Amino acid sequence: MSFREKSAWVMGAIMLATGVFYAQLVAGAPQAPVIEPLIPYVLAVVVFSVVAQIGLAIASPKEANAPADEREEIVIDRAGHWSGMVMGVLAVAACATYVALPSGGMLFHHIIGALIVAQLAEYAFQIVLFRRPI
Length: 134
Hints:
With 134 residues, the chain is mainly α. It is built from five helices and no strands.
C-alpha cells in the first residue's frame, strides 16, 4: 500500500469520525450559534490530521518526502474532480432544503456537512482508484 493510499485511509477515518462528532454537536443544539459546534470540529480535524500525518511520515519517511508519481497524480486529480461533483450536488440539496425550511443556521450546517461528505468522498475515491489496476 502506497503512502498516499495509507494517508487516504487515515484521513478518511478522521473525516468520518469528526463528521459524526459535528453532526452530534449540531443535533444536540440545532438553534445554538453556528460557531459553537464549528470550533471543536475544526480543532479536532486539525489536531488529528497533524498527528496522523506525522505518524505516517515517521513510519515511511522516504515515501512521505517523495513527490507523487504519474499514476498517483491522475488518481488524486480524478478523485478531486468526482468529489467536486459530490459537493455541487450536496450544495444544491442544501439550498433546496433552505427553500423548504428557511433557517440560515441550518443552511450553514448543511453546507459544512456537504464539505465534510465531499472530503470523505474524495478519500474514498482515492482509495478505490489506488486499488484499481492500471
